[in-house]
Amino acid sequence: MQILVVGGAGYIGSHVVRALLDAGHKPHVLDNMSSGNEVNLFPDAELTRGDILDYEALEKLMRRGWDAVIHLAAFKAAGESMTKPEKYSVNNICGTLNILNAMSAAGVSRLIFSSSAAVYGEPSYLPVDEKHRTAPENYYGFTKLEIERFLEWYDRLKGIRFAALRYFNAGGYDPGGRIHGLERSPANLIPIIMEVGIGTRPVLEIFGNDYDTPDGTCIRDYVHVSDLATAHVQAMNYIVARDRSITVNLGSEKGISVQEMVDMARRVTGKPIPSRIVPRRPGDPAQLVASSQSARELLSWVPAYSDAESLVRSSWIAYSRS
Coil, strand, or helix at residue 242? Predict the structure, then answer.
């Protein structure tokens, strides 16, 4: 199939493009390269440099008649979203509406959307399933939830079928070493640990060690980016075959604490990974673990690389090349 991957030069997007190529599809990347990395572009996937805020150009590209669109072109820093909501409103919400309107105008009727576990907010029970109430605690999560609501209306009114994939904590790199362009200004745990390991960051700050967890540090559900990429292909196949929309969690269903991830990184890299305990961040829950039962049942999705060692080892291969 001919697939338009919006944001396909980014960290997750490049892995999705790789998975599409591996599955025999023909992806075409649309990216403004604001956070994309040219080293992660594949010669088998054509690139259009463009922005989802340029509606006229977007509509023209959409008229090429794609079998599906995969949308990963969102700003994602939760902390920044609380101080710059305008930036997130314009890009995440207005940009997605441009995509939907251009799809509607061109008769493109399938969309895979990169959503987030941030739509849930503080968990009221674990593991978190798709029936959990949605109450985002940051503006980034709010934009993702609002986009999901727009998708439901466009499904109803315009016949655009969608898969909203609610990621938990993405990490790792292509296990085959085919992708190694690093994220710019990462805010997630694993890349920060890697930066300490290669010496570009002096110390890892651990936000609190007095949580109600076995080692006192926060527990999160980490999912390998290659497992996420596989889920995008499976979700696309699902909505093509079933002609219905779905919303599913993507997580490993296994919690890994901050300290466990640091300990694994020290073993894998052989580096000391200096760390220090700093005060808790407001709003950080002690534990956040997914239920991915729906993804298993609907998509036959089973994570293959989302254990701590695979996450760290594949990341270290990428970072040690830098």
Answer: helix
For residue 254, the one-letter residue type is K
Active-site residue flag, 238: no
What φ, ψ does residue 257 adopt, rounded to 5°?
Answer: -80, 160
Catalytic residue among 139, 140, 167, 305: 140
Buried b / exposed e along 259-283 (16+ C-beta atoms within 10 A):
bbbbebbbebbebebebeeeeeeee
Q: Choose the CATH number for 189-221+253-289+304-320 among 3.20.20.70, 3.40.1010.10, 3.40.50.12650, 3.90.25.10.
A: 3.90.25.10
- Residue carrying structure tokens 């023209």: 60
CATH superfamily of 2-171+222-250: NAD(P)-binding Rossmann-like Domain (3.40.50.720)
Average pLDDT by stretches of 10, the chain with 322 residues: 97 97 98 92 96 98 97 93 96 98 98 97 96 96 98 98 97 94 87 97 97 97 98 98 98 97 98 97 90 98 98 96 80
